[in-house]
Amino acid sequence: MAKGKGKRKVGAGDVASNRYASHRYELIERLECGIVLEGTEVKALRESGAQLKDGYAAIRDGELWLYSVYIPPYAPASRENHDPERPRKLLMHRRELDRIASRANERGLTLVPTRIYFAGPHAKVEIALARGKDLYDKRQSIRERETKRDMERAVREARR
Length: 160
What we know:
Layout (H helix, E strand, L loop, with lengths): L13 E4 L3 H4 E11 L3 H9 L8 E5 L2 E5 L20 E4 L2 H11 L4 E11 L2 E11 L2 H25 L1
Antiparallel strand pairs: 1-6, 2-5, 2-7, 3-4, 4-5, 6-7
């Protein structure tokens, strides 16, 4: 009997991760940022359920903002809840922000959130400077992944 395809878990310590980002983009550089949240957002993140799939980061007026990231409403808060898809400010040192801004202005580069996690009491977002993959690149990475999987399978069977 085949194993059921259940919902995949995020990495250890992660609240949410964007596993699809590595399929759609070539991730060039990863950076850690703080995130400005409301109280109900922090509680909702601790309960998990955030979604990063369509999220992106952009620099507006010299500040880094996170868009289209869904943090579900916190059920016990009822009326005092936050807007699930509101833009959220990301915190980064000015020097790092200027360096990333100059690189992001290059043709075809974008900022993509790859995971949200807690470092102690603080929520952090890992963003990646990324370049979109062409269809050919996607096919090639799938082919490489399948080849690697086949080689590992052959090694395992040879050890038996």
